[in-house]
């Protein structure tokens, strides 16, 4: 139950992380389970807890890098057993980003997550928002795949579409979003309205456009 609770919180990307000292029990439970029998799911769960533990530490904490290294190793092992895990690929991208990896490596993991499960709604917005930061590392074919994903997200619901467009306008993904909805008049209307509203509310965040 403890590691399930921590795992749930580790999936809440935008929530404040739990205190670092609350992860020991969850990690011990998963490590014990893995000592009995290895599985891609348990490895993914362990990596997810490790990722959330790293996020709970200060940037300068010496333990942070070692924990992220462990999460990356466990995600790689999980993907060796189950390369079709969209969540594992997404978490791998997050770990690589936090470790300061080359942008292409982050983008590749996000693309693999899309290819593995483009319809997984749990990841639609967080995955798209992260890839908006790294779209410049995609080639032409990969950009088309990303735009296809953005089109699918934009047709889900008004609320989801608004969240997507707000992220695009704030994260430098305007060109990607505009290209993805070029044939959708209703979506373009929403996008243009949000763009105008953003321009009157606050300036763009530096370094992300």
What can you tell me about this protein's structure?
This protein has helices at residues 2-11, 24-36, 40-56, 63-81, 86-98, 103-116, 121-132, 140-154, 158-170, 174-180, 185-201. By secondary structure, the chain is mainly alpha-helical. Helix 1 (2-11) crosses helix 2 (24-36), helix 4 packs antiparallel against helix 5 and helix 8 (140-154) packs across helix 10 (174-180). The model is unreliable at 1-15 and 200-209 (pLDDT under 50).
List keywords for this structure.
single chain, 209 residues, mainly alpha, 11 helices, 0% strand, elongated, disordered N terminus
What's a concise summary of this model?
By secondary structure, the protein is mainly α.
Coarse structural class: mainly alpha
Q: Which regions have little confidence, pLDDT < 50, spanning 5+ residues? A: 1-15, 200-209
The biggest beta sheet, please?
none
Outline: elongated
Query: How many strand units?
Result: 0
The first-to-last residue Cα distance is: 42 Å
The helicity comes to: over 70%
CA radius of gyration is 18 Å
The fraction of residues assigned to DSSP E strands is under 5%
Q: Could you give the order of the helices and strands? A: HHHHHHHHHHH
Write the SSE topology.
Layout: H1 2-11, H2 24-36, H3 40-56, H4 63-81, H5 86-98, H6 103-116, H7 121-132, H8 140-154, H9 158-170, H10 174-180, H11 185-201
Helix pairs in contact: 1-2, 1-3, 2-3, 3-4, 3-5, 4-5, 5-6, 7-8, 7-9, 8-10, 9-10, 9-11
């Amino acid at each position: 139950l403890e590691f399930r609770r921590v795992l749930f919180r580790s999936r809440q990307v935008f929530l404040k992380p739990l205190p670092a000292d609350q992860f020991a029990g969850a990690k011990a439970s998963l490590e014990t389970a893995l000592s009995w029998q290895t599985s891609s799911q348990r490895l993914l769960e362990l990596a997810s807890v490790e990722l959330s533990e790293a996020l709970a530490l200060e940037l300068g904490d010496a333990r942070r890098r070692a924990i992220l290294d462990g999460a990356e190793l466990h995600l790689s092992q999980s993907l060796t057993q189950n390369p079709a895990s969209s969540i594992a690929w997404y978490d791998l991208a997050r770990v690589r980003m936090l470790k300061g990896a080359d942008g292409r490596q982050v983008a590749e993991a996000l693309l693999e997550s899309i290819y593995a499960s483009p319809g997984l709604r749990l990841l639609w917005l967080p995955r798209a928002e992260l890839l908006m930061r790294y779209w410049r590392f995609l080639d032409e074919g990969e950009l088309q795949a990303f735009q296809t994903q953005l089109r699918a997200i934009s047709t889900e619901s008004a609320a989801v579409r608004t969240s997507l467009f707000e992220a695009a306008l704030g994260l430098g993904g305007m060109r990607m979003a505009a290209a993805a909805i070029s044939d959708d008049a209703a979506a373009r209307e929403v996008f243009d309205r949000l763009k105008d509203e953003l321009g009157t509310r606050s300036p763009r965040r530096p370094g992300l456009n």
